[in-house]
Amino acid sequence: MSRAYRISIAESVRRQVELADGVQSTLELLPILAPQRMQEILAGELSAAGFDIQDGVAVRREEDGVDIQVDLKKATVTARIVKQESIEIDEQRTVRVEEEHLEEGTAAHKHKLKQQLERQADQTQKRLQQEVTEQLKKKLLDLQHEIDQLVNRTTAAALKEKAAQLGEIEDISEGADGSLTIKVRV
Amino acid sequence: MIVVSRAESKLLQLVQALLGIRGEDSLPMLLNQAQQVAPPFSPAAIDLLKDYVSKGVVMAMARASGQPVEYRAQDSVARSYWWQQLPAPPLHFSRASMELLLWLLQQPLGHMCALLDGSAAGLGDELLLCFTAYCLLSLRNPRPWRSPMLMDNALCWLLFADQLAMHTDSVPDFTQDYIQWIERYPAIVSALQQSLRLRWLAMEKAKSQIQQCSQMIRLGRAQQQVLQQWLDAVRATQRADLAGFVFSSTARLLAPGPDSRFWIESLDDTGGLSEHQQACDAAGAVLQCLNNYHTLVEEARQCRFFDAEYDASQLLLRLWQPLGDDGLQRAQAIVKHLGALDVAVETIHREN
Asked: What residues make up the domain containing A143?
């Protein structure tokens, strides 16, 4: 008759994961002035909104880790989030192993435990990825509004400049609905 | 009276049903149940088979081409049935056609099935393969589409990009094949315009049912590649009129005035935003391609009435008319919206 041993086994999973998500869209700028000038006006507006501009790219890092990048030449806006996380799962178990199969039995239990921990780590990684995506989604609500405002202000500034080129500006009135009326004496 | 065996009778029934000669109702039963059919066949059965296949393919082509339309025949433009204007090429059927028919019969295609190797060698084989592919659509089983005979066939990609795209990440380069098709078989490619219009319309309409982002991305990529290859071929052969199906299918699609949500109605938005956005871009792939096809129209508008290509240019402009510049603008607006941040923001609104 074989004897059964109670064996204590321990396994752990350690992962360093990079969680990332991002979206890109184009900025709809009307060609009111020459492209170079439109870029300059937009750069001014972005600068006022807290963006750092280097080599034609405006960048701002939000408190929640979302990076917003505006490429002035390509007229694209990119929102991207990247997070580094470490997943650490440890587990210890006591299992029963028959005396005749002590070695392979212990190894089989360790293998099974390792597989369970890997699955847990996969689920944790998936949950963290979803959290990162949710964080970005929430940011996009504000970002869309801000980008619309930036484009509107850039358009308005360009229109005023264009009007000044046409003649003497007599009156400028901005409506609550975002409309802009410019009276020009030519 | 010609007497054939039961197995030979199944083979003949299949050909008649596939090509719409008679007994289309029996097609699901023939394709979904494995039939005990194997060579050798009697000379009488072979003669009948040849007769059915050759006449059936021509009849099926005639039906598929629809109403008389304007065709470019040599240097002139004519409104007629394709076979009245263009010389019909001789059909050649090889062993591949017999292998295709036996493959259809010998296993239950609606379930698991072996894949069909080999390639269509002659024009007859190619057309029989295409009419067979139409029947596979009704089976709703993706597996048969993985067959090399279908996956390696240029004409099948042009007609069934939606089915074949699910099994590969990139479309082989068929530009030279399309050029050969247009040069060698102008009658056939003209006759296929109606079928192409209906298939590409169906592909676009079906996008509203696609749930998986990865499926939409594959489909969009494949559509873009196939349409670009076809555009390169019609340019190389100066047969811009053969781009007509792209204009007419999108005109029909945009006629009810769908907004961008139509294309991504069922798209899963629970995954990453990055993949979702790629899928949204892919959803607008065909509309995006219109920009490239529109260059043909711009060139046609430059053509003067005393130029040699004037008639052909006018034909293209008439084909463009149902879509028109307004349609192009609507398509561009939809593409723009599908690529905007708003799409992601709308996702959040829907969740809330």
From this structure: 4-185
A25, A137, A138: residue with CB nearest B339: A25
Total domains, chain A: 1
Q: How far apart are CA A77 and CA A59, in angstroms?
A: 10
Contact (Cβ atoms closer than 8 angstroms) between residue B60 and residue B298: no
- Residue ranges per structural domain of chain B: 1-58+91-152, 177-352
Which residues of B are less than 8 Å from A22 in CB distance?
273-274
Which chain B residue has the Cα nearest residue A28? B336
What pLDDT is recorded for position B344?
A: 62
Instruction: State both tokens at A137.
Output: 């989604």
Name, in order, each residue with C-beta under 8 angstroms of A110's C-beta and a sequence gap of 6 or more: A9, A11
pLDDT (tens digit, 9 = 90+) per residue, A121-147? 999 999 999 899 888 888 887 888 888
Question: Who among B340, B342, B344 is closest to A137 (CB)?
Answer: B344
Residue partners of B326: CB distance under 8 A and separation at least 6: none
- A106 at interface of B, judged by CB pairs closer than 8 A: no
* Full pLDDT tens readout for chain B, 352 residues: 777 778 788 888 888 888 888 877 777 777 777 777 777 888 888 888 898 989 899 888 888 887 777 767 666 777 777 777 777 788 888 888 988 888 888 887 767 677 888 887 789 999 999 999 988 887 778 888 888 999 999 999 999 999 999 999 889 999 999 999 999 988 888 889 999 999 999 999 999 999 999 999 999 999 999 999 999 999 999 999 999 999 999 999 999 888 888 999 999 877 788 899 999 999 999 999 999 999 999 999 998 888 878 888 888 999 999 999 999 999 999 998 898 776 666 655 555 5
Dmax (CA) for chain B in angstroms is 73
Per 3-state DSSP, chain B is made up of helix, strand and coil in percentages (nearest 5) of 70, 5, 30
ipTM: 0.72
Set of chain B residues whose Cβ sits within 8 Å of the Cβ of A24 = 277
Dihedral pair phi/psi, residue A43, rounded to 5°: -60, -40
CA distance B273 to chain A (A): 6
Count Cα atoms within 13 angstroms, Cβ side, for B263. 33
CA B151 – CA B330 distance, rounded (Å): 34
Q: Is the pLDDT of residue A28 over 90?
A: no
User: CB–CB of A138 and B348 under 8 A?
Assistant: yes
For the four alpha carbons of B251, B254, B260 and B264, in that order, the dihedral sign comes to negative
Considering only residues 60 to 89 of chain A, which have any Cβ-Cβ distance to chain B shorter than 8 Å?
77, 79
- Contact indicator for B287, B236 with CB cutoff of 8 Å: no
Q: Which residues of A are less than 8 Å from B281 in CB distance?
A: none
Residue with tokens 């596939």: B18
Q: By C-alpha distance, which of B131, B128, B138 is closest to B28?
A: B138
The residues, any chain, with a CB within 8 Å of residue B181's CB and separated by 6 or more, are: B154, B155, B188, B189, B233
> Cβ contact (<8 Å) for A141 and B274?
no
